[in-house]
């Protein structure tokens, strides 16, 4: 194999699956693992940061609003001169409503996650199925 072949980005689709433990700090641990995958994929820094932000928002949404377990699927499709990263988080659906907390949620700190995902993604959506609910976002990038 030549050096050029070793450095070339793989073609087709590549997928990684991460289980999400319902514990404090779990999102940051999964983010570190995703950062390593994105580095292996040689994504531009700005694209990698956008993907990491979408991963954080979708995982946090699953932890705060859904029943465990949550699973992250990260996949990359690449064609001639462009590609796409798909971030998909599957959980077991919404939790039962919680008791009102003594301290109200600060709207400056919460409630913007899905708006951020919509702003960064070329496409996004929700899919209910027998294994739970999947929220997904697809981010596109140039390269080939």
Tell me what the structure shows.
34% of the residues lie in helices and 32% in strands. With 144 residues, the protein is of the alpha+beta class. The chain has a 5-stranded antiparallel β-sheet, covered by helices on one side. Strand 2 (70-78) and strand 3 (82-91) form a beta hairpin. Helix 2 runs antiparallel to helix 3 (45-65) and helix 3 (45-65) runs antiparallel to helix 4 (113-120). The model is unreliable at 1-10 (pLDDT under 50).
Sequence-ordered SSE layout with sheet pairings:
Elements: H1 3-7, E1 12-20, H2 26-40, H3 45-65, E2 70-78, E3 82-91, H4 113-120, E4 123-129, E5 132-142
Antiparallel strand pairs: 1-2, 2-3, 3-5, 4-5
Helix pairs in contact: 2-3, 3-4
Question: Which word captures the global form?
Answer: globular
Number of strands: 5
Mean pLDDT: 83
The residue fraction in helices comes out at: 25-40%
How many helix segments? 4
- Main beta-sheet annotation: 5 strands, antiparallel
What are the low-pLDDT stretches, counting only 5+ consecutive residues below 50? 1-10
Biggest β-sheet: strands ordered side by side in the sheet: 1-2-3-5-4
In terms of DSSP E residues, the strand content is: 25-35%
- Going by helix content, strand content and strand pairing, the class is alpha+beta
Instruction: Report how far the terminal alpha carbons are from each other.
Output: 19 Å
> How many whole angstroms does the radius of gyration measure?
17 Å
Order of SSEs:
HEHHEEHEE
Provide the descriptors you would attach to this structure in a database record.
single chain, 144 residues, alpha+beta, 5-stranded antiparallel sheet, 5 strands, globular
């Amino acid at each position: 194999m030549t050096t050029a072949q070793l450095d070339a980005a793989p073609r087709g689709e590549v997928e990684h699956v991460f289980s999400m433990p319902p514990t404090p700090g779990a999102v940051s641990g999964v983010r570190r693992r995703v950062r390593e995958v994105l580095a292996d994929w040689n994504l531009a820094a700005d694209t990698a940061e956008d993907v990491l932000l979408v991963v954080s928002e979708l995982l946090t949404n699953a932890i705060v609003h859904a029943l465990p377990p949550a699973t992250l699927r990260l996949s990359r499709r690449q064609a001639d001169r462009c590609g796409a990263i798909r971030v998909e988080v599957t959980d077991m659906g919404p939790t039962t409503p919680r008791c009102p907390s003594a301290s109200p949620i600060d709207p400056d700190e919460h409630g913007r996650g899905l708006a951020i995902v919509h702003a960064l993604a070329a496409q996004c959506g929700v899919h209910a199925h027998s294994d739970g609910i999947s929220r997904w976002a697809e981010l596109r990038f140039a390269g080939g």
